[in-house]
Amino acid sequence: MLGNFLDKSKPINFISLLIFFLFFFLSFSISHFLTDGFTLNNLLYFCLLLVIFLSVFFFFNFIVTRNNLTFDNTYSYFVFTISLIIILPELKSYKILILCILNLLFLRKIYSLHSNKVITSKLFDSGFWLGISFIIEPFTVLFFVLLLAAIYMHQKVTIYTILVPLTGFLAPLMVYFSYLFWNDKTTEFTSLFLPNTNFDISSLTETKYLWFILGILVLSFISVFFKSPKTFSVSNSFRNSWILLLINLFISIIYILFSPENKVAELIFILFPTSVIIANGIELINKKLIKNGVLYLFLASIFIIYFLL
């Protein structure tokens, strides 16, 4: 049964799910080759795309396991893989995927603040990765709220803990400004503070994506409803991490609504918090029949969305 397979965190689980993703990625690539022709440029494009996806999987798994955001299982990795496959046809832009990796690098530092080791480095790095993201997409500055929340939840809000990440944030901006100033392109720098907005969510209301969005949000809400009372009753680092996951989800939704880019592709930003939140909900299910039903429903959603919607 699928529940028994995912109930433990074993290398074979991650390899199997990665192979499952690669099957759909190759199918997507082949259909692209049949449409646009097989060229060296197309081959290099998809090879680089695959490397980026592998990096996304690596950082996702690293953050979850290193910070104990779930128990010793593969539920979050499974939900993340399935969700990524569903929006895979929209993930054609290097920009979106690079922003996703930068966001994961940022989150890696955020969720590790529960440990008091190398705090200065974590604070500076979190600001640094966010600064680079801001240069690529100004609206990612919204995640600075998550950084402040993490400092409040795991550390103490002081001038030091605020100035260190702010310094990290300004560091890449100063380098970028110096480069533009040297090349007499300072208007590009000022445009970062005048970002475009796009509130058109028509792409998100397409039948197949609308059902996907409603599905993961409803499951996330159910997981929060049942997990939160148990989590808040105990004072530990996971309680703070759980609150950060909820803030992370809220900010990601706001970011998607404000961003001028492909909103379906940017659903990738809510996949981290929703996958972890839903995994925590699945962990609470004691009856194997119900647990397997939820997992198989996720698996079936790929074929339902691709072939029926």
Structure in a nutshell:
The chain is mainly alpha-helical and 309 residues long. Helix content is 74%, strand content 0%. It contains 13 helices and no strands.
Can you walk me through this structure?
It is a single chain. Helix content is about 75%, strand content about 0%. The protein has one domain (about 1-115, about 200-305). By secondary structure, the chain is an all-alpha fold. The longest helix is centred in the first third of the chain and has 27 residues, at about 40-65. It has helices spanning about 1-5, 10-35, 40-65, 75-85, 95-110, 120-135, 145-155, 160-180, 185-190, 205-230, 235-260, 270-285, 290-305.
Poorly predicted regions: none
Average pLDDT metric = 90
Largest sheet: none
Order of helices and strands: HHHHHHHHHHHHH
Q: What's the tally of helices?
A: 13
Helix-strand blueprint:
Blueprint (H helix, E strand, L loop, with lengths): L1 H5 L4 H26 L3 H27 L8 H12 L7 H18 L7 H18 L7 H11 L4 H24 L3 H5 L16 H26 L4 H22 L9 H16 L4 H20 L2
Helix pairs in contact: 2-3, 2-4, 3-5, 4-12, 4-13, 5-6, 6-8, 7-11, 10-11, 10-12, 11-12
Question: What are the main properties of this structure?
Answer:
single chain; 309 residues; mainly alpha; 74% helix; 0% strand; globular
